[in-house]
Amino acid sequence: MEILLDIPERYLTGSTPAEFAGWLKLYDALPLFQSGELSAGAACKLACADRFSFLAACNRHGIPVIDYSPEELRDEVKALRSDPRG
User: Is 23 exposed, middle or buried (0-12, 13-18, 19+ CB in 10 A)?
Assistant: First the structure.
């Protein structure tokens, strides 16, 4: 799908239209990932970014990529320790 936006040139701040479009995609994907509306993979696709670049952007913006509560983390560790395959 293509969405056409009319952005005044003064907002490009020294970037090309393609660079600005990439920035917009990333900044759309970040809050959607943070809210849980998109998985990391889907957010990477929306942002047209590889996983490493997207996760680095999450880090820069203080968005946790693993959001376990202490109880969930404890349960996960317990399950991993009791897994006979591990």
Answer: middle
Mean pLDDT score of the chain: 90
Give the span between the Cα atoms of 35 and 19, in whole angstroms. Answer: 25
How far apart (Å, rounded) are the C-alpha atoms in residues 43 and 25? 9
> For 55, how many CA atoms within 13 A lie in the half-sphere containing its CB?
8
| pLDDT tens-digit readout, 23-52 | 999 999 999 999 999 999 999 999 999 999
pLDDT at 17 over 70: yes
Tokens of 55: 């996760």
Closest C-alpha to 47, from 28, 20, 66: 28
C-beta of residue 54 within 8 angstroms of C-beta of residue 47: yes
Strand, coil or helix: 43: helix
